[in-house]
Amino acid sequence: MPKPLRILIGCDTFGPNVNGAAKFAERLAAGLVERGHDVRVMAPAAGRKSGTWVETHEGQPMTMYRIKSWRWYPHDWLRYMIPWRVRHNSARVLDHFKPDVVHFQSHLIVGGGLTKEAELRGIRIIGTNHFMPENMMQFTLLPGPTQRSVIRLVWKAAARTFGRAEAVTTPTRRAANFLEEYTHLTDVHAISCGINAHHYTPNFDTDGENRIVFVGRITGEKKLDVLLKAFRKLPPELNAKLEFVGGGDLLQQMKQQVAHLGLNDKVTFTGYVSDDELKAALTRAKVFAMPSIAELQSIATMEAMATALPIVGANAMALPHLIHDGENGYLFEPNDVDDLRDKLVKVLTADKEELLRMKNNSLKFIRGHDITRTLDTFEALYRGQVVVDPDPELTDD
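Given the sequence above, the corresponding structure tokens read:
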């Protein structure tokens, strides 16, 4: 039996933040703690208080190194740390904890300082990318030409930071190809974020209301205007409802737009919700819609699949890895309002047999993303073992 590892996970975003990168890091850390490893997390302070203490995430206690941080006000919740503070604290934490491996989740700030100090000490480094610089530019307030220059600089910084790692991962093969193209890295591993599918309640109801649900941040990169326009074009006799689950910088703007269109009786916004409330929202829906064109994996889509929902999503980035067109839902051409409407209509008007077929296929395809595979693979990477990327298309029937 291999001995337990001492693992330091470095993040620029972690709970209580609600986003894909934060949720992955939480589930990874909790899963590793449950397996008996000594896991500690270095992340921004969630408020004014910084320091070291134990927090519980995903039901597991873990030591947190919360570094002093400041709000980035163009964004609705983002906090940032000063690079020199990160490097100073990285040295302190590494010398105190003496981890066997450092696993950073972002090259932006934590990854830069943490990998420099880990490299000086000969500690094994693993890096995971959840980030596309283009998605953050809307929060910088920079003009377009300047944004393009900054994006190039950010990718150069990514290449330097990930270049210090013994292994680099990202959630899907398409995202791995994307990272290799922009950083000129090679042999990037595609490892699913994974999900505890048994934590969700499959919904096999075929007679419920025509409720469409979106889960995620209410922000520009999600292309929610496309979903709202498609919803408006649905045939009135469907009596469809649309539910947005999540918060974000465009939440108030979207609410105002819905009110202006006179759709308050058909469109609801929940804001941020608890895990139980999220699961309930998925269970009461008939179809899950994901119009985003910038998903490196989409944990929200995976959660919907674990609830046995048919999925309608954009044929972009990682979504085709999850949505098998015509099997567990449909892909639509990105930004094409009419195509999205037509695909939603196909699901909402499907007969009972067809709905059950799509629901069962969602459950079948999500099995390949079981978090047990993810944890097994990262444990092997931490130990320096040769890893063959798990293929989520291969499931045990």
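The first helix runs from residue 20 to 34. Try to locate this feature in the token string yourself.
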